[in-house]
Amino acid sequence: MNYSISVVLPNYNGKELLDRYLPFTFQALENSKCKYEIILVDDASQDDSVTFTQENHPTITIIQNAQNKGFSFSCNQGIMAAKHDLVLLINSDIKLAPDYLEKLLPYFRDSSTFGVMGKILDKSGDHVEVAAKIPRFNGYKLKSDKQVYPTTSLAEKIPTTFLSGANCLLDRKKLLELEGFDEIYSPFYAEDLDLSIRAWKLGWNSYYEHEATCFHLGSHTTKNYFQKAKIKEIYFRNRMLFHAIHMDRKDLKRWKLYILWAEVIPKVLLGQFWILKSYAAFKANKKEIRQSRKRIRNLMMKNRGKKSLAEVTTTIHSLLLNKELTAL
């Protein structure tokens, strides 16, 4: 089957990165022999990103946001404008290997595939930063901090809890049915986990392909434009939001008590008062949480999806049985 690809590239003050890495994206697209388009979503950059792109890559479609609204919003702008079968989400600080897309395309022969991503190496190319994410529960919290990759070259598919928003290839129709990223997580963190979990709940699988390689400069935008304390505050808020949205109804009350007594209060007693900002921001989203839970419930009814968060975890572990894996 011949596929077509829409590249969605969110950008904020990334002129230098665009200059450095866009040629590698073009090369990977050309090597895939797919019809393609590139959509740059500029999130109110203050540098010359837009002018640079217009002058040096006139075939790229540019969407300009009047205000900076973060990763989820920018990606959704591009996703809604995309015209092709598959959507490649890629960050401006990612360098693709020439055969990156060729390694990913075969996964979409299976109609149950939601998306796939390759491994992310650090800029030196010596260390794997991102591989397949393996889910586990710690109390009432879902964690995906364990990462693995196949020990040997395998023809078997390796599932992953979620696909990194920095380098994943997705089925556009399924992505649109999920309505893209949930913007409750803006400006960043947990939106890609949420997206893949919603897909898993509907019976759509996410995979990791170790033979597909890309390189990561680093958290360029986040580290440059947000203070460390603010990043931590957002991270913990979004972790609370994720669980409030995806936790089974029967466990929700106990989880809320768990968060308060096992996470918020102990941190306050240790003088980590920033957690109060995270908790207050989480509590301020009650209406949005209810809306997100309702959207997932309606999608599951429409698609006859029945998987709970625990069942998604069990499914992923069952797909990993008897596979030779190396942990990062």
Automatic annotation (TrEMBL):
Domain of life: Bacteria
GO terms for MF: glycosyltransferase activity
Keywords: Glycosyltransferase, Transferase
Domain spans labelled Glycosyltransferase 2-like: 6-175
PANTHER family for the chain: GALACTOFURANOSYLTRANSFERASE GLFT2, RHAMNOSYLTRANSFERASE WBBL
Entry's family note: Belongs to the glycosyltransferase 2 family.
Protein name: Glycosyltransferase, GT2 family
